[in-house]
Amino acid sequence: MRLSRAYIPTLKEVPNDAVVASHILMLRAAMIRPVGAGIYSVLPLGYRVMKKVTEIIREEMDAIGGQEFHLPALNPKEIWEETGRVEAFGDILFQIKNRDYVLAPTHEEIMTYHARRTVQSYKDMPQIWYQIQTKFRNEPRPKSGVLRGRQFLMKDSYSFDSSPEGLDASYELHDKAYRRIFERCGLKFFIVGASSGAMGGSGSEEFMVASEAGEDTVAHCEKCGYAANVEVAASNVTTLPRYEEEKACYDISTPGVKSIDELCEFLKINETECAKSRVYITEKGPVLVLMQGNDEVNETKLEKAVGVAVRPGHPDELKEITGADAGSIGPVGFKGRIIADNLLLDRNMLFSGANKNDYHTGGIDLKRDVNDIEYADLRIVESGESCTKCGAPLGVFKAIELGHIFKLGTKYSESMKALFLDEHGAEKPIIMGSYGIGVERVMACYIEQNHDENGIIWNKLLAPYQIHLIGLNMKKPHLAEAALKLYDQMKRLGFDVLFDDREDAQAGFKFKDADLLGMPVQIIVGEKKLAVGQVEVKIRKTGERMDAELVNLDKEFLNKLLEKADE
Ligand code: ATP
Ligand code: MG
């Protein structure tokens, strides 16, 4: 493609509302343009990448026996009513006004609709059906560009099996295919075992990449691969021992002291000697939660330990329950359920609130002074703590979900009556799995992981063009002619070449654009080098430059350059 004729409107400035690297670069490199909140047009350069990603996905899905469908995005609402998911999706589901249609946010219903008509015997299975198609979700906070759009492209596949073992096999095939897809795309990913959320069923994995733009926080061990959402993640932390010294509880006047920091400053003690109190309200009454002073409550773990939903108490509720305000609450004399974090197990000589304002209690022995105290893991795991599996330090960071595989079981086949006859002629619901990959997320995550201050750094498989040919001084006929000849020659050899043949653009401007667009190999045709039969080659990733003889630019040489650019 000749840049002088191409529609690649690059932007010099960082667009106002973009913060995340991939969003900024996809806008600046003219891959996408917004049309509305969370709605994007993919421009020609971006679409070339999209097609490369979908082709990799398609090859790997075909390799596991997947058969490609193209289902309608516009769905009769009555099919969605069979599974109760019009309600389950709520406002996320786009509905057509005055018509009984919805715009599909996923396709379990439609695939099950087809299966129930045609998959009737155990002999008809296993089946893996997939498509690469547009999804619609009225996301409440569309942000970070195409990472969270209201319309996006998804590869979604569905497996149909007659036995749980069959489902396991289909799930395994997807697990392997997903690893190959993300590896081929050049993504550094890790896998988190997850709950399957609104989809139902049991057994699921999320394929994630670390990114500041992510909305999930995960703990990950690089050494053994352990990864979990911090909502459930565990770590090994050493418990502090009991003091030998015993003291009766005593009240200390602490005027104006509210936070743990202030208490430690005031009493010249360490945070780990404090039992931090938090009051939560549940349908079964208030619960006092005790944490070691330097730790925060993980509400997901707390709900699991308590067994019902929890919410932090309001200031007036705290006063009514304990007689004190937030900074002065403690376990001694507290009437109600008390749950403490494991790190406080049987500890003594602790400081906490005295349940009267401006007073704290010292010398607390949880074993001696607090009746019926329960213990559970309630902490939020922190970076650097050791992995419970292998002991190596854990990293805690934000991450984005690229893909998700889950065992649906019979949730959809039961509600939609997709039944089959087994070997003994008994009627049973089909056992299903569902598997998704966000195509735009693959593109954006690749950019999140592969860019520098100058722009995108494509690998040879995803690059919109493999080679960026930069012609300098294109107004001079002999230079223009030489560059054009090289362009034609490389195209004939089968390479995708973007040729900057613009006459009016300055050299510096062309170099900046080439770095921004990020093709793996740049070849520069300039006056001086051309005079001695040479061109300059630049590897985008490393910035390495070298001279090459024009006569040597054959297929083998160019392929070697592309290999080098991927190293
Ligand atoms: P999230 O928790 O990020 O909203 P999800 O759990 O809703 O994701 P799934 O329903 O499992 O996602 O969809 C499968 C894949 O589709 C996701 O792994 C992700 O890559 C992609 N995806 C989901 N929602 C969006 C969106 N709003 N924009 C772009 N891609 C999306
Ligand atoms: Mg979602």
SSE order and pairing:
Layout: H1 21-28, E1 32-36, E2 39-42, H2 44-63, E3 67-68, E4 74-76, H3 77-82, H4 85-89, E5 94-95, E6 101-103, H5 108-118, E7 127-136, E8 151-161, H6 164-184, E9 190-193, E10 204-210, E11 216-220, E12 227-229, E13 250-253, H7 260-267, E14 275-282, E15 285-292, H8 299-306, E16 311-312, H9 315-322, E17 337-341, E18 350-353, E19 359-364, H10 366-369, E20 373-376, E21 395-409, H11 411-415, E22 419-421, E23 427-429, E24 431-438, H12 439-449, E25 451-452, E26 455-456, E27 467-471, H13 477-492, E28 497-500, H14 507-517, E29 521-525, H15 527-531, E30 534-539, E31 545-549, H16 555-566
Parallel strand pairs: 3-7, 15-17, 17-20, 27-28, 27-29
Antiparallel strand pairs: 1-2, 4-6, 5-6, 7-8, 8-24, 9-10, 10-21, 11-12, 11-21, 13-19, 14-15, 14-16, 18-19, 21-24, 22-23, 25-26, 29-30, 30-31
| CATH architect. name of the largest domain | 2-Layer Sandwich
Number of domains: 3
Number of helical segments? Answer: 16
Spell out the CATH superfamily of the largest domain.
Answer: Bira Bifunctional Protein, Domain 2
Strand percentage lies at: 25-35%
Quaternary state of this entry equals: single chain
* CATH C-level category of the largest domain: Alpha Beta
Number of strands: 31
CATH fold descriptor of the largest domain: BirA Bifunctional Protein, domain 2
* Average predicted confidence as pLDDT: 94
Largest sheet: 9 strands, mixed
What is the CA-atom radius of gyration, in angstroms?
Answer: 30 Å
Shape: globular
Helix content: 25-40%
Bound molecules: adenosine-5'-triphosphate, magnesium ion
